[in-house]
Amino acid sequence: MRSNVGLWWLLCSFCLLMGIVYTGWNIAAHVGDPVRRVEWVGTVALFFTAAMAALIGFYLNRVHKAQGGELPEDVLTADIDDGDPEQGHFSPWSWWPITLAFSAALAIIGLAVGTWMLPIGVGVFVVAIVGWVYEYYRGYFAR
Asked: Residue 51 CB: number of other CB atoms within 10 A?
């Protein structure tokens, strides 16, 4: 986590420096034009990006100090398997996510083309989400 904190603070300082350079360059480029002296969209975007990176860096720094431990990627003697958490159980053979995506596409097409298709998409969604949740309760893979 130490490296993440350092990267976020580096990103903050880079965006802050680029915001200052960008604003100064705009002021220098438009000396005689008081209306277009500063290009506000880029200036505000760079300074807000620096502020958001500082916010994330500050938060990660506080979390790192509160936990007191080191992550496996911060320890030089750690193995690759030390940072390999359990991700959960996923079904590589399941067709329900494709059905769920089809129902979302059908509902969006229903919003764009005709509202009569929207209830059909919602109905397919209900069937797909129930099937996906309960796929281990029946059939060949029942537990």
From this structure: 14
Q: Measured in Å, how far apart are the chain's first and last C-alpha atoms?
A: 39
Among 125, 130, 120, 131, which Cα is nearest to 103's? Answer: 125
Burial of 81 (0-12, 13-18, 19+ CB in 10 A): exposed
Q: Cβ(124)–Cβ(99) under 8 Å?
A: yes
Q: 2-19, pLDDT tens digit by residue?
A: 888 999 999 999 999 999
Neighbouring residues of 31: CB distance < 8 A, sequence distance ≥ 6 = none
DSSP state of 31: S
User: What Rg do the C-alpha atoms of the chain give, in angstroms?
Assistant: 26
Distance CA 125, CA 107 (A): 9
Q: Which of 45, 44, 49 is nearest to 10 (CA)?
A: 49
Count of CA atoms in the C-beta half-sphere (13 A) of 97: 5
Look at the pTM and tell me if it is higher than 0.85.
no
Residue whose token pair is 């994330």: 56
Nearest to 23 by CA among 9, 8, 36: 36
**Ordered alpha helix ranges (H), 1-140:** 2-29, 40-67, 96-112, 118-133
